[in-house]
Known about the structure:
It is a single chain. The protein is α/β, with parallel strands linked by helices. Helices cover about 30% and strands about 25% of the residues. The protein has 9 helices and 13 strands. The chain has helices at about 40-50, 65-75, 145-160, 170-175, 180-185, 195-200, 205-215, 255-270, 275-285; strands spanning about 5, 10-20, 30-35, 55-60, 80-85, 90-100, 105-110, 130-135, 165, 190, 220-225, 230-235, 235-240. The strands form 2 sheets. Strands 5-4-1-8-9-10-11-12-13 form a 9-stranded mixed β-sheet, with helices on both faces. The longest helix has 16 residues, at about 145-160. It is globular, with a radius of gyration of 18 Å.
Amino acid sequence: MSGLLVVGDVVTDVVALHDRPLVPGTDTAARIRTLPGGAGANVACWAVRSGWADVRLLARVGTDRAEWHEAELRRAGVRPALVRDPEAPTGTVVSLVDGSAGAERTFLTDSGAVLRLSAADWSADRLDGVVHLHLSGYLFFAAPSRGAALAALTSALERGLPVSVDPASAGFLAELGAGRFLDAVAGAAVLLPNADEAALLTGAATPEAAAVALSRTFPLVVVTLGAEGALLAAGGEVLARVPAPRVDPVDTTGAGDAFTGTFLAAYLSGARPAEAAAFACRAAAEACTRPGARPG
């Protein structure tokens, strides 16, 4: 048994890098690229890049870009199980990256087939040979995909397998509600929110307080802090604070996914949580130095 199974999302990223603020009503010069993306897919690719050989991905895509996405995932070393949706297109995210604001990004999201993954697409035998299940939080934001995520979570817990969850989006999380999300992911062993998500889930004023509060429910909580690194908590206490390397960011899209995939690969390989987070911070910093969300 050596598999890491990611259940999540595959999308087409349209990344627009602009070096000055957008000017409403007229043109703003930008460098635009179309790249493979999706939080779940990115996590899977970074986990392979970080040394975990058997990484599998379950996601739903449209028939329009299915072959391209499957080829890109296989090229990265991921074993994809892509459910092809004959009605909805592959999800698309337009990422506006502002070079004048530290490569901060704004997303325009068309979920397409992503949130149409359903419990019918799940089978417990997908866990055969798997040692860990990771769920992308995007799945919890619509009824069909929430059913798929809950089915996978239930199957994993019945087998005694550990589960990690990335809440994925502060905006969608606010719409769903913290209580509903926390109820849905009950039983997870590792929660990996960013600072905004941790604040929404707890109402705490600081990332430290949020991490401590969440660690009373989840055995290990890892809160990412962007350029400030990450902090870890367990059992109602902060375990460690890990700094991030300083880089000149080009595109911060996917930095959190790089952190999550690398953290899981290191943690499952036996690294202590703080050590795994240090590896993950370096990967996230690397991800910021070029366009797109996948490893180079």
